[in-house]
Design goal:
The chain has helices at about 5, 10-40, 45-60, 60-75, 80-90, 90-105, 115-130, 135-150, 165-190, 200-220, 230-249. It is mostly helical.
């Protein structure tokens, strides 16, 4: 039995399935409680139904990006673990980035048959530990933070967002720069920067995805198509993957 067969075993499916089922049950409980609260406030049931339908519809295409993440990681980590991570608390860009970085430090590559049980345990532990601090810090400091926000008037709040918003933007720019740097390094190593003998496909995919995201953002902000924000990430990923497929034909 290979490592991938073990990672797709029934016991792991059972453990991950129980957790996902519990989260789904919690979502149903909150949905019912929100519906009852809306009726208690005198909200129109017809509008409430339309809101639920619209929310479910707008959740379909963004969920395609999550499915793509599960499929991308399933070749190395099996299906149950990525399914659990991306169903509960994980984010698509986070899970793939951390898994790839951990695998690189272990001297293996995702998408190959180099995975071992020790490597999987290390990757899974790192994926879990690095993202748990949002829950921990929220549990400890969220009440104090909300009291601070309640005491501020809208005019006194920073126009460009607080430190958290700016730190998130800076971190994301750094992450993108690191990836682009590695892509440029791989391309430049192919016997000259402009020889087109290096690995230029990641650069093409990044450019297509960035252009697609720019178009989605422009349409949402300039043309007031706010609903496109729900589809921008999934749409950019699909167009980037399409570019990679067409390049390989």
């Amino acid at each position: 039995m290979t490592v991938l067969d073990q990672l797709n075993g029934g016991q792991i499916y059972l453990v991950c399935g129980i957790i996902v089922a519990f989260i789904a049950a919690v979502c149903v409980v909150f949905l019912v409680r929100a519906w009852r609260a809306g009726k208690a406030l005198g909200m129109d049931p017809v509008k409430m139904k339309r809101t639920v339908t619209a929310s479910a519809t707008f959740s379909l295409l963004p969920s395609v990006g999550i499915l793509l993440g599960v499929l991308a990681l399933s070749g190395s980590l099996g299906i149950p673990w990525p399914w659990l991570r991306l169903s509960v608390i994980g984010a698509l860009h986070y899970e793939t980035q951390v898994a790839d970085a951990a695998a690189e430090q272990l001297g293996i590559r995702l998408g190959t048959d180099q995975m071992t049980t020790q490597a999987f345990a290390t990757i899974a532990l790192l994926m879990s530990v690095c993202i748990m601090w949002g829950m921990v810090l929220t549990t400890i400091f969220n009440r104090r933070y909300l009291r601070r926000l309640d005491g501020q008037s809208p005019a006194s709040r920073p126009a460009g967002g607080g430190f958290g918003d700016r730190a998130m933007v800076a971190m994301f720019i750094g992450m993108v720069s690191a990836y682009l740097g590695s892509y440029l390094g791989g391309f430049a190593s192919g016997e000259g920067l402009f020889s087109f003998r290096g690995d230029w496909v990641p650069l093409l995919v990044a450019a297509v995805a960035a252009l697609a995201m720019a178009v989605f953002t422009w349409l949402a902000e300039k043309k007031h198509l706010d609903w496109l924000e729900n589809f921008s990430i999934a749409g950019s990923m699909l167009l980037g993957m399409l570019a990679a497929v067409l390049t390989g034909l």
